[in-house]
Write a structure and sequence with these properties.
Elements: H1 2-23, H2 27-45, H3 49-54, E1 65-70, E2 75-80, E3 83-91, E4 95-99, H4 140-148, E5 161-168, E6 171-177, E7 187-188, H5 192-206, H6 231-235, H7 252-258, H8 284-295, H9 301-313, E8 322-323, E9 337-339, H10 341-352, E10 356-357, E11 360-361, H11 365-371, E12 387-388, E13 402-406, E14 410-415, E15 420-426, H12 435-443
Antiparallel strand pairs: 1-2, 2-3, 3-4, 5-6, 5-15, 7-9, 8-9, 10-11, 12-13, 13-14, 14-15
Helix pairs in contact: 2-7, 4-12, 5-8
Length: about 450
Protein backbone atom coordinates (compact mmCIF):
# COMPACT_ATOMS: atom_id res chain seq x y z
CA UNK A 1 0.00 0.00 0.00
CA UNK A 2 2.83 2.39 0.91
CA UNK A 3 4.55 1.60 -2.38
CA UNK A 4 1.33 2.34 -4.25
CA UNK A 5 0.90 5.67 -2.45
CA UNK A 6 4.46 6.65 -3.28
CA UNK A 7 3.93 5.84 -6.94
CA UNK A 8 0.63 7.74 -6.91
CA UNK A 9 2.25 10.75 -5.21
CA UNK A 10 5.06 10.72 -7.77
CA UNK A 11 2.63 10.57 -10.67
CA UNK A 12 0.56 13.36 -9.13
CA UNK A 13 3.69 15.47 -8.75
CA UNK A 14 4.59 14.87 -12.40
CA UNK A 15 1.09 15.92 -13.48
CA UNK A 16 1.23 19.07 -11.35
CA UNK A 17 4.65 20.00 -12.72
CA UNK A 18 3.43 19.39 -16.28
CA UNK A 19 0.35 21.51 -15.74
CA UNK A 20 2.42 24.30 -14.20
CA UNK A 21 5.05 24.32 -16.93
CA UNK A 22 3.06 23.41 -20.03
CA UNK A 23 -0.54 24.43 -19.40
CA UNK A 24 -0.71 27.25 -16.86
CA UNK A 25 1.10 29.81 -19.04
CA UNK A 26 -1.45 29.10 -21.79
CA UNK A 27 -4.45 29.97 -19.62
CA UNK A 28 -4.13 33.68 -20.44
CA UNK A 29 -4.41 32.83 -24.11
CA UNK A 30 -7.26 30.37 -23.64
CA UNK A 31 -9.44 32.67 -21.56
CA UNK A 32 -8.41 35.61 -23.75
CA UNK A 33 -9.49 33.86 -26.95
CA UNK A 34 -12.70 32.68 -25.36
CA UNK A 35 -13.85 36.00 -23.87
CA UNK A 36 -12.99 37.90 -27.06
CA UNK A 37 -14.82 35.36 -29.22
CA UNK A 38 -17.90 35.46 -26.99
CA UNK A 39 -18.02 39.26 -26.84
CA UNK A 40 -17.61 39.62 -30.61
CA UNK A 41 -20.09 36.92 -31.58
CA UNK A 42 -22.72 38.08 -29.12
CA UNK A 43 -22.58 41.84 -29.54
CA UNK A 44 -21.72 42.00 -33.24
CA UNK A 45 -23.96 39.21 -34.49
CA UNK A 46 -26.46 38.67 -31.65
CA UNK A 47 -25.44 35.04 -31.15
CA UNK A 48 -26.30 33.33 -27.89
CA UNK A 49 -23.62 32.12 -25.49
CA UNK A 50 -24.65 28.53 -26.14
CA UNK A 51 -24.33 28.98 -29.91
CA UNK A 52 -20.88 30.55 -29.60
CA UNK A 53 -19.62 27.88 -27.20
CA UNK A 54 -20.91 25.06 -29.41
CA UNK A 55 -19.67 26.71 -32.59
CA UNK A 56 -16.85 29.23 -32.47
CA UNK A 57 -15.36 28.07 -29.16
CA UNK A 58 -15.52 24.29 -29.48
CA UNK A 59 -11.77 24.26 -30.08
CA UNK A 60 -9.28 22.10 -28.20
CA UNK A 61 -8.42 23.79 -24.86
CA UNK A 62 -10.60 26.83 -25.62
CA UNK A 63 -13.56 24.67 -24.64
CA UNK A 64 -12.09 24.49 -21.14
CA UNK A 65 -13.17 28.09 -20.53
CA UNK A 66 -16.25 29.14 -18.59
CA UNK A 67 -17.81 32.25 -20.11
CA UNK A 68 -20.20 34.89 -18.79
CA UNK A 69 -21.93 37.66 -20.78
CA UNK A 70 -22.94 40.93 -19.14
CA UNK A 71 -25.46 42.50 -21.52
CA UNK A 72 -25.93 45.61 -19.41
CA UNK A 73 -22.22 46.27 -19.07
CA UNK A 74 -21.57 45.08 -22.64
CA UNK A 75 -18.67 42.78 -21.89
CA UNK A 76 -17.81 39.10 -21.60
CA UNK A 77 -15.47 37.32 -19.20
CA UNK A 78 -13.84 33.91 -19.29
CA UNK A 79 -11.89 31.78 -16.84
CA UNK A 80 -10.31 28.34 -17.03
CA UNK A 81 -11.36 26.35 -13.99
CA UNK A 82 -11.67 29.62 -12.12
CA UNK A 83 -8.18 30.81 -13.08
CA UNK A 84 -6.87 33.63 -15.30
CA UNK A 85 -10.00 35.67 -15.83
CA UNK A 86 -9.93 37.75 -19.01
CA UNK A 87 -12.41 40.41 -20.08
CA UNK A 88 -13.46 41.67 -23.51
CA UNK A 89 -15.52 44.84 -23.77
CA UNK A 90 -17.83 45.86 -26.57
CA UNK A 91 -18.04 49.41 -27.90
CA UNK A 92 -20.43 50.38 -30.68
CA UNK A 93 -18.46 51.18 -33.83
CA UNK A 94 -15.26 49.53 -32.57
CA UNK A 95 -16.42 45.99 -31.84
CA UNK A 96 -14.99 43.87 -29.03
CA UNK A 97 -11.57 44.47 -27.50
CA UNK A 98 -9.72 42.15 -25.15
CA UNK A 99 -8.46 44.33 -22.29
CA UNK A 100 -6.05 44.02 -19.37
CA UNK A 101 -6.54 45.09 -15.76
CA UNK A 102 -5.01 48.53 -16.38
CA UNK A 103 -7.39 49.48 -19.18
CA UNK A 104 -9.56 52.48 -18.28
CA UNK A 105 -13.07 51.60 -19.44
CA UNK A 106 -14.35 55.07 -18.50
CA UNK A 107 -11.97 56.89 -20.85
CA UNK A 108 -13.71 58.55 -23.85
CA UNK A 109 -12.95 57.04 -27.23
CA UNK A 110 -13.37 57.88 -30.90
CA UNK A 111 -15.43 55.83 -33.35
CA UNK A 112 -15.43 55.80 -37.15
CA UNK A 113 -17.94 58.02 -38.90
CA UNK A 114 -20.14 55.98 -41.21
CA UNK A 115 -22.18 56.93 -44.27
CA UNK A 116 -24.88 54.84 -45.88
CA UNK A 117 -25.03 54.27 -49.61
CA UNK A 118 -28.34 55.63 -50.87
CA UNK A 119 -29.67 54.56 -54.25
CA UNK A 120 -32.30 52.28 -55.75
CA UNK A 121 -29.89 49.89 -57.43
CA UNK A 122 -30.02 46.14 -56.77
CA UNK A 123 -27.16 44.16 -55.19
CA UNK A 124 -24.21 44.49 -55.50
CA UNK A 125 -24.22 48.21 -56.32
CA UNK A 126 -27.17 49.27 -54.20
CA UNK A 127 -29.22 48.46 -51.15
CA UNK A 128 -32.03 46.63 -52.94
CA UNK A 129 -32.33 42.89 -53.28
CA UNK A 130 -30.54 41.28 -56.25
CA UNK A 131 -32.48 40.93 -59.47
CA UNK A 132 -33.22 37.49 -60.86
CA UNK A 133 -31.06 36.42 -63.77
CA UNK A 134 -30.79 33.13 -65.60
CA UNK A 135 -27.68 32.40 -67.65
CA UNK A 136 -27.97 29.85 -70.43
CA UNK A 137 -24.44 28.59 -69.85
CA UNK A 138 -24.93 27.78 -66.15
CA UNK A 139 -25.89 24.25 -65.13
CA UNK A 140 -28.03 25.28 -62.16
CA UNK A 141 -28.95 21.76 -61.11
CA UNK A 142 -25.30 20.78 -60.87
CA UNK A 143 -24.41 24.10 -59.22
CA UNK A 144 -27.01 23.66 -56.51
CA UNK A 145 -25.69 20.15 -55.88
CA UNK A 146 -22.09 21.41 -55.58
CA UNK A 147 -23.10 24.12 -53.12
CA UNK A 148 -25.32 21.75 -51.14
CA UNK A 149 -22.41 19.33 -50.87
CA UNK A 150 -20.35 22.02 -49.11
CA UNK A 151 -22.68 21.85 -46.09
CA UNK A 152 -23.08 19.23 -43.39
CA UNK A 153 -25.56 16.46 -43.87
CA UNK A 154 -28.16 16.29 -41.11
CA UNK A 155 -26.63 15.18 -37.82
CA UNK A 156 -23.02 15.61 -38.97
CA UNK A 157 -20.33 18.24 -38.23
CA UNK A 158 -17.55 17.32 -40.64
CA UNK A 159 -17.75 20.25 -43.10
CA UNK A 160 -19.15 22.97 -40.85
CA UNK A 161 -19.87 25.47 -43.61
CA UNK A 162 -21.87 28.49 -42.51
CA UNK A 163 -22.45 30.14 -45.88
CA UNK A 164 -21.62 29.95 -49.56
CA UNK A 165 -22.39 32.54 -52.21
CA UNK A 166 -21.54 32.33 -55.91
CA UNK A 167 -21.58 35.49 -58.01
CA UNK A 168 -21.25 35.31 -61.78
CA UNK A 169 -21.23 38.44 -63.92
CA UNK A 170 -22.34 40.48 -60.90
CA UNK A 171 -25.37 38.24 -60.30
CA UNK A 172 -25.94 35.83 -57.44
CA UNK A 173 -26.40 32.41 -59.03
CA UNK A 174 -26.22 30.41 -55.77
CA UNK A 175 -26.52 31.30 -52.10
CA UNK A 176 -26.98 29.05 -49.09
CA UNK A 177 -26.70 29.37 -45.30
CA UNK A 178 -26.47 26.88 -42.47
CA UNK A 179 -29.12 26.86 -39.75
CA UNK A 180 -28.76 29.92 -37.55
CA UNK A 181 -27.15 32.04 -40.27
CA UNK A 182 -28.59 34.18 -43.06
CA UNK A 183 -27.74 37.06 -45.39
CA UNK A 184 -27.66 39.46 -42.42
CA UNK A 185 -25.26 37.42 -40.27
CA UNK A 186 -21.91 39.06 -39.63
CA UNK A 187 -19.12 36.49 -39.80
CA UNK A 188 -15.51 36.91 -38.74
CA UNK A 189 -13.10 36.72 -41.66
CA UNK A 190 -10.00 36.17 -39.52
CA UNK A 191 -6.99 36.59 -41.85
CA UNK A 192 -9.14 37.70 -44.77
CA UNK A 193 -8.80 40.99 -42.90
CA UNK A 194 -5.20 41.10 -44.17
CA UNK A 195 -6.49 41.52 -47.71
CA UNK A 196 -8.65 44.43 -46.54
CA UNK A 197 -5.65 46.05 -44.84
CA UNK A 198 -3.46 45.70 -47.91
CA UNK A 199 -6.13 47.32 -50.06
CA UNK A 200 -5.80 50.61 -48.20
CA UNK A 201 -2.23 50.91 -49.47
CA UNK A 202 -3.58 50.54 -53.00
CA UNK A 203 -6.11 53.28 -52.33
CA UNK A 204 -3.47 55.62 -50.89
CA UNK A 205 -1.17 54.86 -53.81
CA UNK A 206 -3.90 55.82 -56.28
CA UNK A 207 -4.37 59.05 -54.33
CA UNK A 208 -0.65 59.76 -54.68
CA UNK A 209 -0.14 59.73 -50.92
CA UNK A 210 2.21 56.78 -50.56
CA UNK A 211 4.97 54.99 -52.48
CA UNK A 212 5.10 51.32 -51.58
CA UNK A 213 8.58 50.93 -53.08
CA UNK A 214 10.11 53.23 -50.48
CA UNK A 215 11.59 52.01 -47.17
CA UNK A 216 9.05 51.35 -44.43
CA UNK A 217 8.77 54.42 -42.17
CA UNK A 218 9.93 52.69 -38.97
CA UNK A 219 12.25 54.83 -36.82
CA UNK A 220 13.62 51.78 -34.97
CA UNK A 221 15.02 50.39 -38.24
CA UNK A 222 16.86 53.47 -39.52
CA UNK A 223 20.30 52.55 -38.23
CA UNK A 224 20.50 48.85 -39.08
CA UNK A 225 19.95 46.45 -41.96
CA UNK A 226 16.18 46.60 -41.48
CA UNK A 227 16.27 50.08 -43.03
CA UNK A 228 16.27 48.32 -46.41
CA UNK A 229 12.82 46.80 -45.82
CA UNK A 230 10.25 48.47 -48.08
CA UNK A 231 6.48 48.68 -47.81
CA UNK A 232 6.46 46.39 -50.83
CA UNK A 233 8.38 43.79 -48.81
CA UNK A 234 5.93 44.05 -45.92
CA UNK A 235 2.91 43.76 -48.21
CA UNK A 236 4.50 40.66 -49.73
CA UNK A 237 5.31 39.09 -46.31
CA UNK A 238 8.85 39.08 -47.62
CA UNK A 239 10.67 41.33 -45.16
CA UNK A 240 13.09 38.73 -43.81
CA UNK A 241 11.99 39.51 -40.25
CA UNK A 242 11.67 36.83 -37.61
CA UNK A 243 8.12 35.81 -36.69
CA UNK A 244 6.45 32.64 -35.39
CA UNK A 245 2.88 32.17 -36.65
CA UNK A 246 1.76 29.19 -34.55
CA UNK A 247 -1.69 29.20 -32.95
CA UNK A 248 -1.25 25.90 -31.11
CA UNK A 249 1.07 27.32 -28.45
CA UNK A 250 2.49 30.48 -26.91
CA UNK A 251 4.06 32.14 -29.93
CA UNK A 252 4.56 35.57 -31.46
CA UNK A 253 1.08 35.61 -32.95
CA UNK A 254 -0.83 34.37 -29.91
CA UNK A 255 0.99 36.77 -27.59
CA UNK A 256 0.16 39.61 -29.98
CA UNK A 257 -3.54 38.81 -30.38
CA UNK A 258 -4.30 37.88 -26.77
CA UNK A 259 -1.83 39.83 -24.62
CA UNK A 260 -0.42 42.88 -26.45
CA UNK A 261 -1.95 46.30 -25.82
CA UNK A 262 -0.58 47.71 -29.09
CA UNK A 263 -0.64 45.06 -31.80
CA UNK A 264 1.17 47.25 -34.32
CA UNK A 265 4.50 46.99 -32.46
CA UNK A 266 5.49 43.30 -31.90
CA UNK A 267 6.92 42.89 -35.42
CA UNK A 268 9.00 46.07 -35.10
CA UNK A 269 11.28 44.54 -32.46
CA UNK A 270 12.04 41.39 -34.43
CA UNK A 271 15.50 40.90 -35.98
CA UNK A 272 16.25 39.96 -39.55
CA UNK A 273 16.65 36.23 -40.10
CA UNK A 274 16.84 36.54 -43.86
CA UNK A 275 17.14 39.13 -46.60
CA UNK A 276 14.34 41.52 -47.61
CA UNK A 277 12.54 40.40 -50.77
CA UNK A 278 14.21 36.99 -50.51
CA UNK A 279 12.75 35.35 -47.39
CA UNK A 280 8.99 34.85 -47.46
CA UNK A 281 7.37 34.23 -44.06
CA UNK A 282 3.67 34.57 -43.33
CA UNK A 283 3.21 36.96 -40.41
CA UNK A 284 0.14 38.50 -38.79
CA UNK A 285 2.57 40.80 -37.01
CA UNK A 286 3.57 42.26 -40.36
CA UNK A 287 -0.01 43.12 -41.27
CA UNK A 288 -0.65 44.78 -37.93
CA UNK A 289 2.57 46.73 -38.44
CA UNK A 290 1.07 47.87 -41.76
CA UNK A 291 -2.03 49.01 -39.86
CA UNK A 292 0.25 51.08 -37.64
CA UNK A 293 1.94 52.56 -40.70
CA UNK A 294 -1.49 53.48 -42.08
CA UNK A 295 -2.26 55.26 -38.83
CA UNK A 296 0.82 57.45 -39.30
CA UNK A 297 -0.45 58.64 -42.69
CA UNK A 298 -3.09 60.78 -41.00
CA UNK A 299 -2.82 63.84 -38.81
CA UNK A 300 -5.47 62.66 -36.37
CA UNK A 301 -6.72 59.37 -35.02
CA UNK A 302 -10.23 60.26 -36.21
CA UNK A 303 -9.01 60.54 -39.81
CA UNK A 304 -7.37 57.12 -39.54
CA UNK A 305 -10.57 55.55 -38.21
CA UNK A 306 -12.75 57.23 -40.84
CA UNK A 307 -10.49 56.35 -43.77
CA UNK A 308 -11.08 52.61 -43.56
CA UNK A 309 -14.81 53.17 -43.94
CA UNK A 310 -15.07 56.21 -46.20
CA UNK A 311 -12.49 55.00 -48.74
CA UNK A 312 -13.64 51.37 -48.98
CA UNK A 313 -16.36 49.80 -46.83
CA UNK A 314 -19.03 52.47 -47.12
CA UNK A 315 -17.83 53.45 -50.61
CA UNK A 316 -18.84 50.04 -52.00
CA UNK A 317 -21.77 49.45 -49.68
CA UNK A 318 -20.07 47.03 -47.25
CA UNK A 319 -22.15 48.58 -44.49
CA UNK A 320 -22.01 45.49 -42.28
CA UNK A 321 -18.20 45.54 -42.33
CA UNK A 322 -16.36 46.35 -39.13
CA UNK A 323 -12.72 45.89 -38.14
CA UNK A 324 -12.15 45.66 -34.40
CA UNK A 325 -9.44 47.60 -32.59
CA UNK A 326 -6.79 46.84 -29.98
CA UNK A 327 -6.43 48.61 -26.63
CA UNK A 328 -4.58 51.51 -28.28
CA UNK A 329 -7.27 52.06 -30.89
CA UNK A 330 -5.43 50.47 -33.83
CA UNK A 331 -7.42 48.39 -36.28
CA UNK A 332 -6.40 44.74 -35.87
CA UNK A 333 -5.73 44.49 -39.58
CA UNK A 334 -4.43 40.94 -39.38
CA UNK A 335 -7.47 39.20 -38.01
CA UNK A 336 -10.58 40.98 -36.76
CA UNK A 337 -12.65 41.97 -39.80
CA UNK A 338 -16.39 41.18 -39.74
CA UNK A 339 -18.98 41.36 -42.52
CA UNK A 340 -21.97 39.55 -43.96
CA UNK A 341 -21.31 36.98 -46.66
CA UNK A 342 -22.77 39.29 -49.28
CA UNK A 343 -20.50 42.13 -48.18
CA UNK A 344 -17.44 39.88 -48.26
CA UNK A 345 -18.52 39.06 -51.81
CA UNK A 346 -18.60 42.77 -52.69
CA UNK A 347 -14.95 42.97 -51.70
CA UNK A 348 -14.20 40.11 -54.10
CA UNK A 349 -16.14 41.83 -56.87
CA UNK A 350 -14.12 45.01 -56.38
CA UNK A 351 -10.98 43.03 -57.21
CA UNK A 352 -12.67 41.10 -60.00
CA UNK A 353 -13.37 44.47 -61.62
CA UNK A 354 -9.82 45.68 -61.02
CA UNK A 355 -10.77 48.36 -58.53
CA UNK A 356 -13.69 49.78 -60.49
CA UNK A 357 -16.93 50.02 -58.53
CA UNK A 358 -19.91 50.94 -60.66
CA UNK A 359 -17.83 53.45 -62.63
CA UNK A 360 -15.63 54.78 -59.83
CA UNK A 361 -12.01 53.66 -59.67
CA UNK A 362 -11.25 52.86 -56.01
CA UNK A 363 -7.67 51.77 -56.70
CA UNK A 364 -5.65 51.60 -59.93
CA UNK A 365 -6.22 48.64 -62.22
CA UNK A 366 -2.56 47.72 -61.77
CA UNK A 367 -3.14 47.10 -58.06
CA UNK A 368 -5.21 43.96 -58.69
CA UNK A 369 -2.37 42.61 -60.83
CA UNK A 370 0.12 43.56 -58.12
CA UNK A 371 -1.66 41.67 -55.34
CA UNK A 372 -2.18 38.60 -57.55
CA UNK A 373 1.41 38.31 -58.79
CA UNK A 374 3.52 35.70 -56.93
CA UNK A 375 5.91 36.99 -54.29
CA UNK A 376 9.56 35.99 -54.50
CA UNK A 377 10.26 32.71 -52.67
CA UNK A 378 6.58 31.97 -51.94
CA UNK A 379 6.44 29.19 -54.57
CA UNK A 380 3.44 30.77 -56.24
CA UNK A 381 1.41 30.68 -53.04
CA UNK A 382 1.27 34.35 -52.12
CA UNK A 383 0.95 37.80 -53.64
CA UNK A 384 0.46 40.99 -51.64
CA UNK A 385 -1.82 40.21 -48.68
CA UNK A 386 -3.67 37.71 -50.91
CA UNK A 387 -3.13 34.00 -51.47
CA UNK A 388 -2.73 32.62 -54.99
CA UNK A 389 -3.49 29.42 -56.83
CA UNK A 390 -0.60 30.03 -59.23
CA UNK A 391 1.33 27.23 -57.53
CA UNK A 392 -1.58 24.83 -57.91
CA UNK A 393 -2.66 24.47 -54.27
CA UNK A 394 -6.13 23.64 -55.57
CA UNK A 395 -5.16 21.51 -58.57
CA UNK A 396 -8.53 21.46 -60.31
CA UNK A 397 -9.25 25.17 -59.90
CA UNK A 398 -8.03 27.80 -62.40
CA UNK A 399 -4.43 28.92 -61.86
CA UNK A 400 -5.38 32.60 -62.13
CA UNK A 401 -7.64 32.35 -59.10
CA UNK A 402 -6.49 34.38 -56.09
CA UNK A 403 -8.16 34.68 -52.74
CA UNK A 404 -8.47 36.18 -49.30
CA UNK A 405 -8.15 33.42 -46.73
CA UNK A 406 -8.84 33.14 -43.02
CA UNK A 407 -8.57 30.70 -40.12
CA UNK A 408 -11.06 27.83 -40.16
CA UNK A 409 -11.68 28.15 -43.86
CA UNK A 410 -12.95 31.63 -44.61
CA UNK A 411 -12.44 32.42 -48.28
CA UNK A 412 -13.21 35.07 -50.89
CA UNK A 413 -12.06 33.53 -54.18
CA UNK A 414 -11.69 35.68 -57.30
CA UNK A 415 -11.64 34.11 -60.78
CA UNK A 416 -10.64 36.77 -63.37
CA UNK A 417 -10.91 34.37 -66.32
CA UNK A 418 -14.45 33.35 -65.37
CA UNK A 419 -16.03 36.63 -64.16
CA UNK A 420 -16.69 34.77 -60.93
CA UNK A 421 -16.49 35.26 -57.16
CA UNK A 422 -17.07 32.51 -54.58
CA UNK A 423 -17.32 33.12 -50.85
CA UNK A 424 -17.29 30.34 -48.29
CA UNK A 425 -17.46 30.94 -44.53
CA UNK A 426 -17.19 28.16 -41.97
CA UNK A 427 -15.29 26.34 -39.24
CA UNK A 428 -13.22 23.80 -41.19
CA UNK A 429 -10.31 24.52 -43.51
CA UNK A 430 -8.25 22.68 -46.08
CA UNK A 431 -7.64 19.74 -46.07
CA UNK A 432 -10.57 18.89 -43.76
CA UNK A 433 -12.87 20.89 -45.99
CA UNK A 434 -12.68 20.11 -49.72
CA UNK A 435 -12.04 23.56 -51.18
CA UNK A 436 -10.68 22.03 -54.36
CA UNK A 437 -13.99 20.25 -54.86
CA UNK A 438 -16.09 23.34 -54.17
CA UNK A 439 -14.07 25.72 -56.33
CA UNK A 440 -13.57 23.40 -59.28
CA UNK A 441 -17.11 22.12 -58.96
CA UNK A 442 -18.59 25.60 -59.31
CA UNK A 443 -16.34 26.43 -62.27
CA UNK A 444 -17.39 23.19 -63.99
CA UNK A 445 -20.98 24.42 -63.90
CA UNK A 446 -20.11 27.22 -66.32
CA UNK A 447 -19.88 26.45 -70.00
CA UNK A 448 -18.71 28.48 -73.01
CA UNK A 449 -20.16 31.94 -73.56
CA UNK A 450 -23.17 33.12 -71.63
CA UNK A 451 -26.43 34.78 -72.57
CA UNK A 452 -29.09 35.86 -70.12
Amino acid sequence: MKKFLKIFALLLLIVVIYLRIAIYPQLDLISGFSSKSVASGHFLDNRSLETIQQGDNDIDKVDWATNVIDDKGQFATATVYGLKERKAIYREGLGATLINDDFDVTKPYLVPKRTQLKNNLPFPYGNNEPTDSVFSNVDYKKLNSVVENAFDAKGKKDKRTRSVIVIYKDKIIAEKYADGFDKNSRILGWSMTKSLTGTFFGILQKQGKIDIMKPAPIAEWKNDERSKITLNDLLHMNSGLEWEEDYSKISDVTKMLFIAEDMTTPQIDKPLVGKPNSTWNYSSGTTNLLSGILRKQFKTHQEYLDFWYSSLFDKIGMHSALVEVDMKGNFVGSSYGWATTRDWAKFGLLYLHKGNWNGEQIFDESWSKYVSTPTNTSNGQYGAQFWLNAGGKFPNAPKDMYYASGYQGQMVAIFPSHDLVIVRMGLKEDPEFDFNGLLSGVVSCLTAKSTK
